[in-house]
Design a protein that fits this description.
This protein is α+β, with helices and mostly antiparallel strands. It has helices at residues 5-21, 118-132, 140-159; strands at residues 25-34, 47-56, 61-67, 76-80, 83-87, 97-103, 106-113, 163-164. The protein is globular and about 40 Å long. The chain starts with a helix and ends with a strand.
Length: 166
C-alpha cells in the first residue's frame, strides 16, 4: 500500500541517504498516523504523517519524517562525532541550498549550492548512457531495493515492530 507521504516523498529521502552514505538499509521501524479523511478499506489505509528510522549495514541510524499535513521541507542533517552538517531544504530544486557546518553548536563554515539543474543533469546522463552505452548511475536494482525498503517501512507500521529488509 502506497499513496501517502512515505511513498510520495519519503522514498526520495531514503534513496538519497543510500547514495550519500554508500550503505544499504537493513531494517526499518515506522510510526505513522492514518489519514481519517480518506475512506478506509481493508486493503488501503493512507498515512498522513510518519517517522521512519532506518538502520544501515555499517551501524548508521537515520530518521526520515514525512507529512501531508505540514509545510513541505526537506531538512537534511548529518550528525557525527566531529560536528553537524545541516541543509534546510536540502533536497529542494527550486532555490539554492545553504549547507552549514557546526562544531559545538557554532557555525564554522557555510556554503551555498544549487540543485536547480538536477533534473536536466539526470536526463542528460540518462541520454548519454542510452546513446553511448554503459551503466546509468541509478540502476534498476536501486529501484528494487528502494521498494524493499518501502515494503519494510509499511510492514513495520502495520506490525508495530522493527522490520528487516527482505
Amino acid at each position: 500500500a502506497c499513496g501517502g507521504p512515505i511513498g510520495d516523498v519519503g522514498i526520495h529521502a531514503m534513496d538519497a541517504l543510500r547514495f550519500v552514505l554508500q550503505q544499504e538499509v537493513v531494517a526499518a521501524s515506522t510510526l505513522a498516523h492514518a489519514d481519517s479523511s480518506e475512506p478506509a478499506t481493508p486493503d488501503r489505509e493512507l498515512e498522513e504523517s510518519a517517522a521512519i528510522t532506518l538502520e544501515f549495514n555499517r551501524g548508521v541510524l537515520a530518521n526520515v519524517q514525512v507529512s501531508f499535513r505540514a509545510v513541505y521541507r526537506t531538512l537534511v542533517e548529518v550528525v557525527g562525532q566531529d560536528g553537524i552538517l545541516t541543509a534546510e531544504c536540502g533536497l529542494n530544486v527550486d532555490q539554492p541550498v545553504t549547507i552549514i557546518h557546526r562544531v559545538a553548536c557554532k557555525a564554522v563554515a557555510q556554503e551555498e549550492v544549487s540543485n536547480s539543474d538536477a533534473y536536466s543533469r539526470m536526463l542528460d546522463a540518462f541520454s548519454v548512457t542510452v546513446e553511448e552505452g554503459g551503466a546509468f548511475a541509478s540502476t534498476g536494482e536501486d529501484g528494487v531495493q528502494n521498494q524493499r525498503i518501502l515494503d519494510a517501512a509499511f510492514r513495520s507500521w502495520h506490525s508495530g515492530c522493527r522490520e528487516r529488509i527482505r
